[in-house]
Write the structure tokens for this entry.
Amino acid sequence: MDAATGEPVLEAGGAAVFAGTGPEPLGDAFTLRAFRGLVRARRGRLKPLLLDQSFLAGVGNIYADEALWAARLHPLRSATTLRPADERHLYQEVRRILSEAIERRGSSIDDYTAPDGDGSMQEHLLVYQRAGEPCARCRRPVRRIVVGGRATHFCSWCQRLPAADRKGAAPLLRGMTPRRSQTPNRRGGRWTELDGPAALGRTAPEVDAALAREHARIRARADRTSRAAATRRAAARAAASEQTARGS
Ligand SMILES: [Zn+2]
């Protein structure tokens, strides 16, 4: 990346090089095997890891929560505790969710039009910003905690934290307080979060705006990747036809 402009530097052949940036999750080169190599070199917890642009490029807060929920992996789980099947689920769900995000937004960033705060995009999100609502899989309430300053939504039933990770995660999970109006007879952090009037976090238009930004980022990265791949394919075709011409 060019430090001055923030633009990718183009290598000979047109492949974009992002210094210190992880691979594009929708790129052809991003195979399960490649993902396994990356994740096995890391020790961090999954949520901050997914948001780390040096790990993967372009995964934002909203789709990180959605992918972890879909893969049934707790956001505070350590990368080192993942089994091969967990790695595969996470790989598949990150790709599936990012591709869906692109499809839903049409073929180009320019197609995006804000839904005027009607919250329509939020209907496609199964866990993000749904604290206190029933999990779409098990109907238990979705929980919200703050990890690295980012709101994090998950189902503690579907996304179990292995025993080895529980002790270290306890201080973060303590931030999860009950919604007292719904659980008047309970004490302690039994159900879900929510403190104060702004506890639900963003308003519907704010979530839509955040989604639009994530979509634009995902789309822009996917466009760059497919352009680079097209350039590589064209170069390979040219080389092959040159070889054929020479051979004949
Ligand atoms: Zn659940």
Observations:
- Residues 1-18, 106-119, 177-200 have pLDDT under 50 and may be disordered.
- The two ends are 42 Å apart (CA to CA).
- The first helix runs from residue 32 to 39.
